[in-house]
């Protein structure tokens, strides 16, 4: 019987490297977050919201504003982040 090989992502080395960004050797011109930082984001015509996932996961509950709408970012589990409104 043949042994099944463990699945490995072809992007594993790319994801681990802070030097590799995109397929054409691009540089991170926006220095607000490190390259390849995983974020939770939302956007409308008049507002934008971005939080690093690690911040949400560590805090577990992050009350904030999305334009004029109050929202709560919640990390119910280690690998899950959810956005919910607090009203309206």
Topology:
Blueprint: H1 12-16, E1 39-43, E2 48-52, H2 53-59, E3 61-66, E4 69-77, E5 80-85
Antiparallel strand pairs: 1-2, 3-4, 4-5
Summarize the structure in words:
With 88 residues, the protein is mainly beta. It has a domain at 32-85. It has helices at 12-16, 53-59; strands at residues 39-43, 48-52, 61-66, 69-77, 80-85. Strands 3-4-5 form a 3-stranded antiparallel β-sheet. β3 (61-66) and β4 (69-77) form a beta hairpin. The longest helix has 7 residues, at 53-59. It is extended and about 55 Å long.
Q: What proportion of the residues is helical, as a percent range? A: 10-25%
Poorly predicted sequence stretches spanning 5 or more consecutive residues: none
Radius of gyration: 18 Å
**What is the helix/strand order?**
HEEHEEE
Determine the mean pLDDT: 78
| Fraction in beta strands | 35-45%
Counting DSSP E segments of at least 2 residues, the number of strands comes to 5
Shape: extended
The count of helical stretches stands at 2
Task: Tell me the strand order in the biggest sheet.
Answer: 3-4-5
Question: What structural class should be given to the helix and strand makeup?
Answer: mainly beta
Q: How far is the first residue's CA from the last residue's CA?
A: 59 Å
Could you give a short account of the major beta sheet?
Answer: 3 strands, antiparallel
């Amino acid at each position: 019987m043949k042994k099944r090989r463990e699945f490995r992502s072809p992007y594993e080395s790319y994801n681990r490297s802070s030097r590799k960004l995109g397929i054409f050797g691009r540089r991170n011109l926006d220095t607000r977050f490190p390259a390849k930082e995983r974020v939770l984001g939302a956007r409308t015509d008049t507002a934008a919201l971005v939080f690093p996932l690690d911040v949400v996961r560590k805090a577990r509950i992050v009350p904030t504003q999305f334009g004029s709408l109050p929202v709560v970012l919640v990390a119910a589990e280690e690998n899950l982040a959810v956005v919910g409104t607090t009203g309206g």
